[in-house]
Amino acid sequence: MGKLTNKTAFISGGTSGIGLATAQEFIHEGARVIITGRYEETLNQAVALLGPNAHGIVCDNSAMSDIHQLAERIKAITPTLDIVFANAGYGKFAPVDIVSEALFDELFTVLVKGTFFTVQQLLPLVREGGSVILNTSVVTAYGSQNASIYSAAKAAVQSFSKTLAAELTARRIRVNAVSPGYTETDGFTKTGMTVEQIAGVKEYITPLLPFRRFAMPAEIANAVLFLASDDASYLHGSEIVVDGGYSVIR
Ligand SMILES: NC(=O)c1ccc[n+]([C@@H]2O[C@H](COP(=O)([O-])OP(=O)(O)OC[C@H]3O[C@@H](n4cnc5c(N)ncnc54)[C@H](OP(=O)(O)O)[C@@H]3O)[C@@H](O)[C@H]2O)c1
């Protein structure tokens, strides 16, 4: 029997990277999984890869009109959810003097507003004893150049994991966060950086990491699985940092 047998999980942003690896892990442990992404084509590809226990819903995390339809569209698949992993998002990076209002609004919309209202809209479906997991980032733990807006947005998400835990205790819904360090995903190609810039960033960062490598998405997914499962029955309002020690070892 898997750790998530008979459970139904929702994962925002499940078409690639951490979300897709988590969907694979959840299904491997017996869950049925609903994933989202912005584009029908990549969503269909991910659902085909995941197999018959996966469902896909096109939903843009930065569009309130999509988020408002989400619960109804999920109800066409399942009446209730056991697990919600609010993961969808990406980073964009710029020095403070270059940050535009558009960049500020874009990141706060997709990461803060999108995450909050996705969880809010799905809460009526979440069963008592359920688990909500938010994807923050290790950049909340220290000051990182060019990351003022991304870090602040993820810090807001980190804050939600505590306040939502307080509010959902009465419904016995556990709320926790996973805080990934540098992880090998498509995320970097969505930052607006060129292939050369991405290679340069990786070359600069890798020697600074204790294990001299980025995390694999499955290594983050393992922590999300733990938080989703009954193994984490006494974790509430917590955050698991999966950064290979980067934020604490110098
Ligand atoms: N990679 C890292 O080093 C790292 C570190 C810390 C935290 N994180 C966080 O981890 C989460 C997942 O990122 P990842 O690294 O796994 O990158 P990824 O491979 O690019 O995955 C991002 C996922 O989010 C979806 N997504 C992006 N914008 C969306 C939107 N507006 N609406 C709906 N879905 C959206 C993407 O789907 P489509 O593109 O198909 O729409 C994709 O499924 C993000 O919140 C990121 O900030 C990543």
Overview of the molecule:
It holds the Pfam family adh_short_C2. One of its GO terms (molecular function) is oxidoreductase activity. By secondary structure, this protein is an alpha/beta fold. It has one domain: NAD(P)-binding Rossmann-like Domain (Rossmann fold), CATH 3.40.50.720. 40% of the residues lie in helices and 17% in strands. A seven-stranded parallel beta sheet has the order 3-2-1-4-5-6-7, with helices on both faces. Helix 1 crosses helix 7, helix 3 packs parallel to helix 4 and helix 4 runs parallel beside helix 5. The longest helix is centred in the middle third of the chain and has 22 residues. The chain is globular, with a radius of gyration of 17 Å.
Task: Name the features.
alpha/beta, 7 helices, 250 residues, Rossmann fold, 7-stranded parallel β-sheet, 7 strands, oxidoreductase activity, binds NADP nicotinamide-adenine-dinucleotide phosphate
**How big is the Rg?**
17 Å
C-alpha termini separation: 42 Å
Helix-and-strand structural type: alpha/beta
Q: What is the architecture at the second tier of CATH?
A: 3-Layer(aba) Sandwich
Low-confidence stretches: none
Number of helices: 7
Portion of residues in beta strands equals 15-25%
Number of domains: 1
Task: Report the count of strand segments.
Answer: 7
Largest sheet: 7 strands, parallel
Remind me, CATH topology? Rossmann fold
In CATH, the homologous superfamily goes by the name NAD(P)-binding Rossmann-like Domain
Placed side by side, the strands forming the largest sheet appear as 3-2-1-4-5-6-7
Mean pLDDT over the full residue set: 97
Shape: globular
Keywords: Oxidoreductase
InterPro entries: NAD(P)-bd_dom_sf (IPR036291), Sc_DH/Rdtase_CS (IPR020904), SDR_DHRS6-like (IPR051122), SDR_fam (IPR002347)
Protein name: SDR family oxidoreductase
Pfam family, one: adh_short_C2
